[in-house]
Amino acid sequence: MSDYGYCREYGVTDVFHEVDAVYRLEQEKLRCPVTAFDGLRAAGPVVWLESQKVFAVTGYHEAQTVLDDAVNFSSANMAGEQATRNYAEMLSRAAALARDAGRTGGTAPLGDAHPLVLAHADPPVHTRQRALVRPSFSAARVRRAESRIAELADGLLDKVVERGRMDVRAEYSDALMSQIVTTELHCPVSDAPTLQRWARIFMRAVGRDLTDAELDEMARARFEFDEYFDHRIDEVRGQPVEDMLGAIVNERVAEDEEPLTRGELLMICELLLQGGTETSGNTTTNIVHFLAGHPSEADRLRADPGAIPAFIDEYMRWDQPDQMLHRTAVNDTEVAGTLIPTGSVVMVHKAAASRDPRVYDHPGELDYSRPPQRSLVFGGGPHFCLGAALGKAQIRIALERLLARATDIELAVDESELRKIPSIVLHGFEQLPVRFRTIA
Ligand code: HEM
User: Fold this and answer.
1) pTM above the 0.85 mark?
2) Ligand 1 pocket: which of 74, 385, 426 to mutate (most atoms within 8 A of CB)
């Protein structure tokens, strides 16, 4: 099956113009940004993108080299400079709200200190945090979560099957992923909409500059979030709690290890909320969009659910929910013959790198009969996604349950009416209204 029907051919000569149009968040370009970034890769695996003042790394091996090298490439700006700017401003406004509410010094959940954690941290801080959090992502924990994920998926489908239509993003994918992470973070499932709202607001920081009003809204959400999770952390501490928050808070710490601070725990809760919802939710929505346009593929997967994991792996290589990661060079470093000077921002375009023709045959084709492929969808090196197995299980079960209960899934609006998320990093739909027939 070849690339998106609606992606038009382009010439490599206007590639920088094409890429800039994606950066300007033009809806037409956001529909299929990968064509522009494929073109950029054709210009070289590491190129200077003057309009954005970044080194764009689009070759597979080169991207892997940068991701592997946490000594020369810092993750402090991993979500991009706009995100870092938005975030710093939001955190300072949130700290002001905490002070205004009398939550100063030790009583404020975070006070003025918002430590960088995991994906945003560099060694040795990252190494210590990852070692403390990693056991909570064990394969056994993921297996134990599976039946609950299926129950949550069925609960959401129960609400829409009679109707025979739904907005896949709001009523299924995002709702499901936020319910899963809500329960993993030791919160009642009835609070999932609140957590989902916070995640949406925080995610806005990625990929564009925010307005003053948006920054205020985000600061308010951050303040509420800190207050809320401050209590949750106290609830699980020292208790025999099975969920992920319990596992993280109560992880045994060796004598010479420093336990996670409250500030680190709160920041980790936010990272898990975002990491555990947006990417898996976008992937599920994107897959349903694809299946609505390729009903025979939906029928094939329904008839052979055992093929779903290979389909998901290949789909995520081919169409990634978050397309790029950022690093900052902390030393002069050469990658593929290009000198990247200290202080430079490096955009690792993992979606383009995962279609590098030097690594994949016919990379623009979604072909899940090919042997298992490596891809950079979950990153690489020391920051490789801790939630990869959980994320894949979430998407698989969401698809299995949907295909078991709905057939003839089709778009309920014209393709041209679908709006993409206005972000250079995130790749997904704002809504996905579909019609379907219920399987009795
Ligand atoms: C389709 C689903 C997912 C995708 C595509 C994805 C993608 C990624 C990527 C690319 C990174 C590396 C970031 C970097 O190198 O800068 C990452 C890191 C991370 N992800 Fe995921 N993720 C997914 C699901 C999840 C889930 C479900 C969770 C947890 C609930 C999660 C938790 C994390 C954490 C904690 C890190 C930081 C790891 C570290 O820095 O050591 N992710 N993810």
Assistant:
1) yes
2) 385
